[in-house]
From TrEMBL:
InterPro entries: IS402-like_dom, Transposase_6_like
TM region positions: none
Protein name: Transposase
Coiled-coil features, chain-numbered ranges: none
Domain Insertion element IS402-like intervals: 9-83
Length: 117
């Protein structure tokens, strides 16, 4: 759990909980227990930070790479990342933590991996 808390600190987790949609409920019940959102978010942050593929996600995170990728896709469709970004900017701005006068917008090139996973 220490790795999860390092990648997703409490302050970030509190903000994320405000934008993440509720887990869907299976009407028939059963199935495997769903991994916690914080564990999956940590796995997603790890993949983004390290630059590995979903398949290379270490088993110590709990959720598999395919589970993390599936949740990433689910959250992307729900526009969670944009909402989270806006919330972080709003929270930092409200606390006086952002000085917009020093911000510059620049283009950034990012290379995408073929195959996506």
């Amino acid at each position: 759990m220490a790795m999860v808390e390092r990648l997703v600190p409490d302050a970030l987790w509190e903000l994320f909980q405000r934008v993440v949609p509720a887990a869907p409920v299976r009407p028939q019940g059963g199935g495997r227990r769903r991994y916690g959102d914080r564990q999956v978010l940590a796995a997603i942050v790890f993949v983004a930070k390290i630059g590995c593929t979903w398949r290379q996600l270490p088993p110590g995170f709990g959720p598999s790479g395919s589970t993390a990728h599936r949740r990433f896709t689910e959250w992307s469709r729900a526009r969670v990342w944009g909402k989270q970004h806006r919330l972080v900017l709003d929270e930092l701005g409200a606390r006086g933590g952002l000085d917009w006068s020093r911000c510059a917008i620049d283009s950034v090139n990012m290379r995408a991996l073929k195959g996506g996973t």
